[in-house]
Amino acid sequence: MDERTRRDVETFREWVNETRPGGMVFFGGAGVSTESGIPDFRSPDGLYAQKYPHPPEQMISRSFFDAHPSEFFDFYCDHMLALDAEPNRAHRKLAELESTGTLSTVITQNIDGLHQKAGSQRVLELHGSVLRNFCQECGATHSVEDLLALRAQAADGVPRCPTCGGIVKPDVVLYEEPLDERTLRASVEAIARADLMVVAGTSLSVYPAAGLLDYFQGDHLVIVNRTPTPRDRQANLCLATNVGDVFDF
């Protein structure tokens, strides 16, 4: 971290300490979890840079899930599940800031559940969670452990509900699927009320999630991302460094 970045990080931390109770909101993407060993998507070492039989965006789309469920679950279980991952410095600090009353809401594009594992209570999961799964036919809910057990029992590797035989789908938003309206609305409301908004670990290239920044009307917008984003000009501070380093205080 160079001297300028170090000064900007200190400025950010001052803003956090000066924020009124509940005045901070956090919006995070895949870069928040890379320190926990979960690869991001668009970096040179990310998921999308690897070679697969089909483009990853296609393999985690709703049409691919419907047409090729066996291939979908091969990819999903091998590359989208990281059940042994532990919260990192950023997750833990955000949970602390919530417990002390500074942070009102975590809004996340991640599906790993690490914010809750760190202790955060108010988490809005824009893209769902790998920890939740449901039968598409009868609606029965299943844990991720259930999903893996049902997959292991199936000859074609497609988990099916033991009650009705319907395919069990992860409660994650696939490409071609809309975001949950209630989660989106709650995110807009939290952002509109905030004085300090921190956007971290996201390229801000996926919509409608990236458009949430348009609802921020507060005093300080901080973007923490190792590479530039299309919204950098809107920010009061842009910190091109690791998310964990910024929240290590």
Protein architecture, described:
The chain has 249 residues and is of the alpha/beta class. The chain has nine helices and nine strands. The protein has two domains: 1-38 and 87-127 and 179-249, Rossmann fold, CATH 3.40.50.1220; 39-81 and 129-172, 2-Layer Sandwich (SIR2/SIRT2 'Small Domain'), CATH 3.30.1600. The strands form two sheets. It has a six-stranded parallel β-sheet, with helices on both faces. Strands 5-4-6 form a three-stranded antiparallel β-sheet.
Question: What's the gist of this structure?
Answer:
This protein has 249 residues and is an alpha/beta fold. 32% of the residues lie in helices and 17% in strands. The radius of gyration is 19 Å and the shape is elongated.
What labels describe this entry?
SIR2/SIRT2 'Small Domain', 2 domains, 6-stranded parallel sheet, alpha/beta, Rossmann fold, 3-stranded antiparallel sheet, 9 helices, 249 residues
Radius of gyration: 19 Å
The total tally of domains equals 2
The largest pleated sheet is described as: 6 strands, parallel
Helix content: 25-40%
Oligomer: single chain
The residue-averaged pLDDT reads 95
* Low-pLDDT regions: none
Overall form:
elongated
Secondary structure class reads alpha/beta
